[in-house]
Amino acid sequence: MLKKGDIVEVSVTDLAYGGKGVGKLNGLVVLVRGGLPGDTLKVKIEKKKKNFAEGSVVEVLKASEKRISPVCSHFGLCGGCTWQNLDYEAQLIYKEKTVRESLRHLGGFSDFETEKIIRSDEIYFYRNKMEFSFGKDLEGKLILGLHPYEDFKRVFNLQKCHLQSELSSQIVWWVRDFCAKEELIPYDPKEHTGFLRYLAIREGKSKTEMMVNLVTYSGQFPQAKKFASGLMEDFPQIKTVVRNINTKFADIAFGEEEEVLTGKGTIQEKLGRFHFEISANSFFQTNTRQAEKLFNIVTDYAELEGSEEVLDLYSGTGAISFFLAQKAKRVTGIESVKDSVENAFRNAELNSVMNCRFLLGEAKEVLLSLVQESFSPQVIVVDPPRGGMHKKVISLMLEIKPERIIYVSCNPTTLARDLQVLAEKDYILEKVQPVDMFPQTYHIEAVAKLRRK
Fold first, then answer.
1. Residues 446 and 308 placed together within one structural domain of the fold
2. Three-class SS of residue 184?
3. Can 410 be counted among the known catalytic residues?
4. Is the domain of 177 the same as that of 302?
5. What are phi and psi of 395, to 5 degrees?
């Protein structure tokens, strides 16, 4: 009888969504963190459930042909790059398979086209935003870095991250040294005391403009001027430094109040022919170069001819809206984050986009008011968060009955769930395009095209 703590031999045959290797032992599914298809492993069982077990690699007895040496010294400890030990070509194969199989097995779809996954030109240093956490080591000294795998209570000191630019890592080191010298206290989520919570770094890839966002608990910050001026002096690429104040229990790098310490509080990024102003709390796709490919796919799938009203749900800073507006009569964006909507209006003015409007509010509430006004767009584009769409939003979309729905998703599971509801009513799933926005991780973006029956 298999139990926690047992050391067993497992041959890995597949990868599960979430990044773990899949093997079987006497008919029982075993999920192995760090395991790759083709591996034969000595595995320590860490969890035992009725229908499956989970374990970690003790020893690689026979290595998969797809296994490579990770470039990061934090690999294995860090919860970020789950697939840095997997050849990139293999990553693409399994990501495309994840999207296709999720739609088949979870959504019940069979007659649809899965287009060949679009690879990322950059597989390291591609992110334009990273969030780093403050904490204390066992001796009580300040540390700044990332969380260990599935452990959000602890933080390890970052040496170098291979997902954002090397300049970003240098800024992390600088901030860590500054805060230690100034004896600033990391926030304690248990006691709800302390000051330092997060460091968020945003980077405009087109011009190498950097934003440093220090997220703190409430209280005075007498070192603010010294902090901001020191960063700007040592890193001329930094164009603005802001402080976000988060007094809530939720551990998020997002503040209910913002102070601009230097600069104008935004940086610029370019996608296609459009320039975007991005603030600390606004949403923007984290892989700039892949985002341009993604938005072009959305525009192609929308099949616009110039006479259509288009609805862009979860519109963020307006990026997808602007791409659509090139071929639409008018685009209406709905977004719940105030900073993002303000950025979208500024971006529309910056780019002389005259046929976009942006409405602030929760999607289900704003959409209801539009339905009551008999708003009837021919195309709806949705790009919801990982949790997918609220049932009420889907219901209202079905009431509107657009000719086409374009669904952008970063979660194949919720994509399959939501598309299943749409397909049960009036829509046919024609095709889906996987796009690799997140190399070295199991995460995958996909664009699905649905047409009304």
1. yes
2. coil
3. yes
4. no
5. -60, -40
Catalytic entry in 72, 81, 161, 410: 410
Q: What is the pLDDT of residues 308-366, one digit of tens each?
A: 999 999 999 999 999 999 999 999 999 999 989 999 999 999 999 999 999 999 999 99
Residues 111 and 29 in one domain: no
pLDDT in tens, 155-164: 999 999 999 9
Tell whether 237 and 295 lie within a shared domain.
no
Q: What share of the chain is helix, strand, coil (3-state, %, to 5)?
A: 25, 35, 40
Same domain, 311 and 427: yes
Confidence of residue 282 (pLDDT cuts 50, 70, 90): confident
Can you give the pLDDT at residue 192? Answer: 87
Same domain, 41 and 59: yes
What angle do helix axes 391-400 and 412-425 make, rounded to 10 degrees? 40
pTM for the whole structure = 0.93
Structure token digits, residue 308 = 């259509």
Cβ-proximal residues to 253 (8 Å cutoff; 6+ apart), any chain = 131, 197, 198, 200, 213, 215, 244, 246
Taking a C-beta distance cutoff of 8 angstroms, is the pair 430, 114 a contact? no
E strands, 137-245, in order: 142-146, 156-157, 196-204, 209-216, 238-245
Neighbours of 139 (CB within 10 A): 5
Q: How far is CA 18 from CA 68, 193, 267, 416, 432, in A?
A: 19, 34, 33, 16, 20
Instruction: Give per-residue pLDDT as tens, 19-49.
Output: 999 999 999 999 999 999 999 999 999 999 9
